[in-house]
Design goal:
Strand order of the largest sheet: 2-1-13-3
Distance between the termini: 6 Å
Structural class: mainly beta
Order of helices and strands: EEEEEEEEEEHHEEE
Helix content: under 10%
Radius of gyration: 20 Å
Number of domains: 2
Number of strands: 13
Shape: globular
Strand content: 25-35%
Number of helices: 2
Largest sheet: 4 strands, antiparallel
Length: about 180
Amino acid sequence: MTTTLYFCGALGEAGPVLSCPDSAMLRGAVHTLQADQVNPCTKASLTAAGVDSDGDVGLDAVHGGAFANAFTYEQATGPTGGGNENLVLRVSVAGDDIQVLFATDGAGASITPIGTAVRDLINADPDASAKVVAACPGTGASEVAALAQTNLAGGLDDGDHIKFDGNPPVCRRVNSRVTV
């Protein structure tokens, strides 16, 4: 793996040095950080497997840092049977817990959604989208699968907020090293 160090600061100013695994977003480029932006290479994430790879839903924390490892995600059938007829696909957020409950039909049976429906639901919900961004690594055309409450993982503290007053800083690569 190649790790690149980036010096960040407005021209002529000192700033932090970020150590990031190379990514397509940063490799070989100058990257401008906006005020209060987070180091993009330390976000917690989770992939909820679908019935096949085209039903997978990937979640990335909006902000980097270990705090996002406490976020949980669940995809569940929810209540079924009498009194639960014609429920819509829905998302709820309680604290750090995000839950997607599948829709039901006229008989109260669960209807399993496809990946794009879950992705769009999460990204359109103001509470869920304040915590995570959802994507479909595949086409999103296949059904998702139920997932028990699971923590996002991989968020690192070295990605905490980088705050600057005034002009946005520019991050320039200062060196690279390869680690095995």
